[in-house]
Task: inverse folding
């Protein structure tokens, strides 16, 4: 690694990711490590210029107050101790905080602002080639941001040694399977295996209304399809995954309980014994997007909205039917098109449509018609733990309503969800 590094040692603070991101925003690379790291381990890391010991409310573990070792405090590197109230060398005012951090990073540590995507990509290409050698890598390519950026990075590093498998389960948004094929097979000349599993998935989901059961079926069937495709290929030694830094952080540390267990393509049989290649595992989400841009991926892929693993399966509420699923897909496409036209595409964090398994009476061509309502959801959030509702101009909502009710078959009403999180969740299922 060519970049200088500032270590953040976890001493019970929930602000570790924020601090690491702030250092990276200065152009200096930063990683979070556990409090009990040894000086020998610090010296084994490349280009460490300084250490921040970041204390917080979780500093007491099993009744014992934890601390870093004396050898860390007494080492030759600059060490800054910060507590969770910002009382030790750490102003809470935002401008003063940034200035104090910059003074430590550039003044005391003499770090160079050489953390950028060009250097990151060059480092990862070298590391991937060293890890993989002349062997082959398999990647499940969903079309989401993380898997797409991993694919682009692996293509740059090892080209045809990568095989991408894109499983179309029929629950993607309009145009997404076609975009994956266009970008990766046609434009990037990747080895892409396209699997049309639409009927297979929808047949399995027929009549299933429980959201958790739908998730289990979709996840389980995906694993089976991916496994079948993997067994058809010869010489695969590695599995590429779109693990990113928040996945690792949220899996828990010695002072912070796990938010969620981390897995991407989990549950593969043990005899499919692949070694993992995870080149994005030290990047935050905005850095993943910046990496995708630097690798030449289109904005529509790089800035793709957060999308649930089960896809439109949890937005076609209740038991999935093909006609209602298509109505969800078409109404969602209209919503995304209109938000893009009206400057809301980059302003609103997530927006989508959902259709419940109910009908209401309406009028179509002068005749009574029982059709579905479409629910529009548009929310903003920082951490997905809470969310506020976007104040969409009423005139735009009227225009979207007009388009959906006239262009989407089987829909006669459009509703706007005004519920924040809590009490609602972001998704309906």
Result:
């Amino acid at each position: 690694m060519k970049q200088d590094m500032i270590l953040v040692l976890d001493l019970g603070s929930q602000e570790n990711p924020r601090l690491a991101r702030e250092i990276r925003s200065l152009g200096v690379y930063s990683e979070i490590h556990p409090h009990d790291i040894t000086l020998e381990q610090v010296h084994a890391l490349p280009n460490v210029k300084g250490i921040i010991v970041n204390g917080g409310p979780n500093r007491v573990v099993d009744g014992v107050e934890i601390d870093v070792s004396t050898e860390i405090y007494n080492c030759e590197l600059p060490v800054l101790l910060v507590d969770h109230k910002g009382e030790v060398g750490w102003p809470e005012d935002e401008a003063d905080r940034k200035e104090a951090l910059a003074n430590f990073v550039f003044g005391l540590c003499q770090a160079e602002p050489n953390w950028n995507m060009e250097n990151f990509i060059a480092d990862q290409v070298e590391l991937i080639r060293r890890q993989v050698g002349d062997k082959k890598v398999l990647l499940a390519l969903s079309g989401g941001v993380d898997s797409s950026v991993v694919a682009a990075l692996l293509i740059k590093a090892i080209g045809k040694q990568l095989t991408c498998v894109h499983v179309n389960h029929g629950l993607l948004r309009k145009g997404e399977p076609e975009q994956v094929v266009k970008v990766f097979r046609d434009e990037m000349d990747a080895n892409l295996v396209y699997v049309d599993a639409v009927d297979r998935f929808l047949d399995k989901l027929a009549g299933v209304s429980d959201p958790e059961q739908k998730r289990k079926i979709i996840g389980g069937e995906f694993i089976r399809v991916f496994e079948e495709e993997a067994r058809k290929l010869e010489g695969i030694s590695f599995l590429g995954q779109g693990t990113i830094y928040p996945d690792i952080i949220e899996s828990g540390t010695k002072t912070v309980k796990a938010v969620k267990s981390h897995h991407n393509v989990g549950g593969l049989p043990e005899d499919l014994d692949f070694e993992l290649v995870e080149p994005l595992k030290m990047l935050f989400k905005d850095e993943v997007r910046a990496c995708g841009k630097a690798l030449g991926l289109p904005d529509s892929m790089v800035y793709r909205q957060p999308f649930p693993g089960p896809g439109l399966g949890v937005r076609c509420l209740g038991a999935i039917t093909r006609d209602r699923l298509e109505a969800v897909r078409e109404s969602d496409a209209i919503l995304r098109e209109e938000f893009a036209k009206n400057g809301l595409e980059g302003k609103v964090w997530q927006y989508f449509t959902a259709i419940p398994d109910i009908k209401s009476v309406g009028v179509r061509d002068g005749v009574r018609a029982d059709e579905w309502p479409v629910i529009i959801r548009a929310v903003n959030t920082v951490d997905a733990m809470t969310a506020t509702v976007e104040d969409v101009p009423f005139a735009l909502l009227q225009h979207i309503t007009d388009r959906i009710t006239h262009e989407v078959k089987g829909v006669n009403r459009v509703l706007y969800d005004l519920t924040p999180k809590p009490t609602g969740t972001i998704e309906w299922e």
About this structure: The radius of gyration is 24 Å. Residues 211-232 form the longest helix (22 residues). DSSP finds 14 helices and 16 strands in the chain.
